[in-house]
């Protein structure tokens, strides 16, 4: 008998690696293709808050032993919701203040559970290293008589696979081709900066998840907001840095030459400039930041009308930001992405047990029908929260996209 063809996974982000983990546990052959040179190639971004649904999805994939190791690696913070701090006065604002969100954050054991993106990727990839092909920039795919192949930017092709899972983020070439441009990701114009500082810089805040907003002293009536998570259990550990993420309304945060791939001191200088007049209670977060770890980021979002329809392909489907990009508001993106991985992994495992591991009959259709429901709701929620938090909005006629599709000749 011929060996079964592998499932080809495009991208080594969170959703891709977790679905790879699911395939590994089920004994289904797969290969992951990633454009970066290694897992530490790029800045890993802000700490991710995991919802109850996100944790349940990860647990379903990793199983009891694997999940316990993952959960032990997560940070846990007390407190049910955001606490707001006035950055100009240093005052902690009460829950009766209209600008303070009562959004529940706890997800398990009465704690706010979070983990850095880099640590999460390492956890998901552990034991799968030999299945990841680095330095492979996916530019599209092609169908064969009995399968599919990934196409790479250097003109080469992958081996033949039985299915392609596109998970390479908001600029996914697999998503563009599969949906014929129906999946649109909009640039909301807002920009942000990620930063880190030693735990001692956060002692003035105390334990909790904090949100700061300055909409009275920024140029041109702009707004700057900041979120951070302070875990009491790590407060006295000198080997740990806490992170924060800053966002600004359109035009407030500008990277040099509009190059948002720049990291380090240029981003740190802008963060310090925007907060130079803030209260001494919060200034240490910026005065003591690890400048080399500072990084810019863009706020993007899929269409708030929801995940669009496209003709189903039984051998090609999408997970994570490739199909439903979200703003950071509400922490929906990563949690929805891991739900994709758990659902698709389960459906593939069921088909494999039935002996349908060559054609995968009905799997992508069943997955996409269910994914569109919960992912569309998550995108809408994320977009609505972003409009209130930093004034973002999408006008399909005028808002720029970051994944413009050009049909092949």
TrEMBL record:
FAD-binding domain boundaries: 131-381
Needed cofactors: FAD
Protein name (Swiss-Prot/TrEMBL): FAD/NAD(P)-binding domain-containing protein
Domain of life: Eukaryota
One MF term in the entry's GO annotations: monooxygenase activity
Keywords, sorted A to Z: FAD, Flavoprotein, Monooxygenase, Oxidoreductase
InterPro entries: FAD-bd, FAD/NAD-bd_sf
UniProt entry tagged with the keyword Oxidoreductase: yes
Entry-linked SUPFAM superfamilies: FAD/NAD(P)-binding domain
Gene3D superfamilies (UniProt xref): FAD/NAD(P)-binding domain
């Amino acid at each position: 008998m011929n060996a079964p063809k592998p499932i080809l996974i495009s991208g080594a982000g969170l959703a891709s690696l977790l679905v790879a983990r699911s395939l590994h546990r089920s004994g289904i052959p797969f290969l992951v293709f990633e454009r970066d040179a290694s897992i530490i190639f790029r800045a890993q971004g802000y700490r991710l808050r995991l919802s109850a649904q996100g944790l349940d999805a990860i647990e379903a994939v990793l199983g009891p032993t694997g999940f316990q190791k993952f959960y032990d690696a997560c940070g846990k913070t007390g407190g049910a919701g955001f606490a707001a701090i006035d950055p100009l006065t240093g005052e902690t604002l009460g829950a009766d203040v209209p600008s303070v969100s009562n959004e529940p954050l706890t997800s398990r054991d009465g704690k706010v559970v979070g983990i850095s993106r880099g640590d999460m990727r390492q956890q998901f990839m552990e034991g799968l290293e030999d299945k990841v092909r680095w330095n492979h920039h996916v530019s599209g795919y092609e169908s064969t008589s009995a399968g599919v192949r990934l196409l790479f930017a250097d003109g080469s092709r992958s081996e033949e696979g039985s299915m392609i899972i596109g998970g390479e983020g908001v600029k996914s070439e697999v998503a563009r081709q599969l949906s014929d441009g129906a999946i649109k990701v909009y640039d909301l114009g807002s920009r942000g900066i990620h930063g880190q500082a030693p735990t001692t810089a956060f002692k003035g805040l105390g334990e909790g998840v904090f949100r700061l907003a300055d909409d009275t002293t920024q140029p041109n009536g702009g707004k700057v907001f900041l979120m951070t998570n302070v875990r009491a259990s790590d407060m006295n550990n000198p080997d740990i840095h806490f992170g924060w993420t800053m966002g600004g309304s359109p035009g407030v945060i500008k990277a040099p030459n509009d190059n948002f791939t720049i990291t380090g001191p240029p981003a740190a200088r802008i963060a310090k400039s925007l907060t130079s007049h803030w209260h001494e209670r919060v200034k240490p977060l910026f005065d003591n930041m690890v400048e080399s770890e500072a990084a810019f980021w863009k706020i993007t979002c899929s269409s708030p009308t929801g995940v669009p329809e496209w003709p189903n392909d039984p051998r090609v489907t999408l997970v994570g930001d490739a199909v439903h990009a979200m703003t950071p508001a509400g922490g929906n993106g990563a949690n929805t992405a891991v739900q994709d991985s758990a659902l698709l992994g389960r459906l593939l495992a069921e088909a494999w047990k039935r002996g349908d591991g060559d054609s995968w009959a009905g799997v992508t259709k069943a997955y996409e029908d269910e994914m569109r429901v919960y992912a569309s709701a998550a995108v809408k929620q994320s977009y609505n929260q972003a409009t209130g938090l930093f004034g973002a909005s999408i006008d399909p006629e005028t808002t720029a996209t970051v994944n413009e599709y050009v049909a092949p000749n």
